[in-house]
Each structure stands twice: as structure tokens, then as C-alpha cells.
Amino acid sequence: MKFVLLILLQFGALLALRSQSLPGNTLVPVCTGQNKKLINGVCETGTKALVNQEPVVKNNEGYCRLTYKISWSDGSSIEYTEDRKGACQL
After folding, report:
1. Could you give the number of structural domains in the chain?
2. Residues 17 and 31 sit within 8 Å (Cβ to Cβ)
3. CA dist., res. 25 & res. 21, Å (int)
4. H or E element: which one contains 26?
5. Which residue in 11, 24, 43, 59 has the most C-beta neighbors within 10 A?
6. Number of other residues whose CB lies within 10 A of the CB of residue 74
7. Which pLDDT tens digit goes with each residue over 22-38?
8. Which N-terminal stretch is annotated as signal sequence (predicted)?
């Protein structure tokens, strides 16, 4: 009997994978973290790169909106943004 639980991030990246009762007591790695992905049975850390930054105003305060791209060895990637209080750095 096989039981597999998959939990996906909103970006489509694999957050966690757990298996129980697999043939031969096979253990499957658990990848956690936005920059982690299971590739060929190995939990890989992706390469994070800043691709854009732009000033934004929220609640009358200045923020820098940073856009990052995380890439993995299988050619897949995701982009995400985060807002940090203060001015953007050049």
C-alpha cells in the first residue's frame, strides 16, 4: 500500500513530500522552504537572483518592491515579490 502526501506552494513549487509504506521501505526526502525542490530524489536548493526592484508607497510610507527568481537544475523557476520598508538600493 502506498500513501503519498503532496503540499504545493502557490507558485507551484514543491514544499513537502512524505511517503509511507513504500516498497523496500524507501524513504523520500522532505523539502521545506521556498527555495527547495525535490529533483531526482534529492532536495535541491535553488539559486535566488534579484530581477527587479521598484519603489512603492503603502499607507503613505515608502517601500521597495523586490522581485526574485529562484531557478533549479531541472530548468524550472519561480518568481516572487516582497516589499521591504525603505528606499530601494541601487
Report:
1. 1
2. yes
3. 6
4. none
5. 43
6. 10
7. 556 677 778 998 899 99
8. 1-21
